[in-house]
Amino acid sequence: MELNSLTEPKENTGIDRIENEEDIWKIPLFDIWVENDDRKPSNPNMLRKQVGYDSIKLYALDHAFCFNSLKYTDLNPIFGVTQGFNDNILYTDLAKYLLSKNKYSTDFVQKVTSFFQEKISLSKTHFESLWSFLPAEFGLQEEDRKKMYNFLFYQNRNEEVIRHFF
Hints:
There is one protein chain. This protein is mostly helical. It has one domain (3-165). 41% of the residues lie in helices and 7% in strands. It has a two-stranded antiparallel ribbon. A hairpin with a 3-residue loop joins strand 1 (46-51) and strand 2.
């Protein structure tokens, strides 16, 4: 689905019909955190679902190119955030429009930061149990687990994720 189509008046799928507007900032925040270099304006990887007569919901899909397509053993949190222009759906007209309403308000910055910190904490708490569900066929080793854990939960990098978002 072309996200920019939701901002065009000729479409009958306007912004006012999106039920899950907050996901338009949650998805790119997640993508920055995991270095998903596949979801971007030219390839939004989103599904649109009709909800009732006049509402829609947007859903993210396809996380195949997370971690900047690196091998897990090459993950290094010291490299920081590598996403640039056109690497994230934050650069779609839809996201720009929705975020322009309050992107720089103190309340919104606090809301995004708190949400992110809460999800980081939750992910960290459940990381080991989630890792145990990964199939042996993936061939992941203890070194891969350590590298991914350090990459995802390195505080300096996660602070940079928030700075990059804004």
